[in-house]
User: What shape does this take?
Amino acid sequence: MKHYIVRITQSIKRQNSVAKDKALIPIKRVLVVITKGLAQETRETKVMLGTYQRFTRGRASKLEMEEANKQFVDVIRGLGLGVLAVLPFSPITLPFVVKLGEKIGVNVLPSAFTADSKEDEIIDIQQEIEVLVESDIVRSSSEDKR
Assistant: This one.
């Protein structure tokens, strides 16, 4: 009799763990999307800071400065949502604020969370340009020392 009870409880535990795993799949997908969005924002912010650094030296173009300023606005948006995330009832407040912003026509989320594929390509190209520009600066400074 004990043997059957043990088997039944083990079966119930297995069913519970399978149901738990199935319930976690949508949560994991959302977390992956958030992780990718935050990683993209990090890359864009690094490019922005590099652009501002070149601007202080007089080496940034107007187009680069426009893109850097757009990213700065995204950083401010993220900070605004970060403040709301700390407040109580944020799981209710944040979706409400995002939906309200959509109805009013105000973009509340940073661009990484509403990004188009074209924007991703532009960011990748900008990052490649940043690497090339930085390598040229390092080469020219090493040639000047000679």
In short: The chain is about 85% helix and 0% strand. Residues 2-145 form one domain.
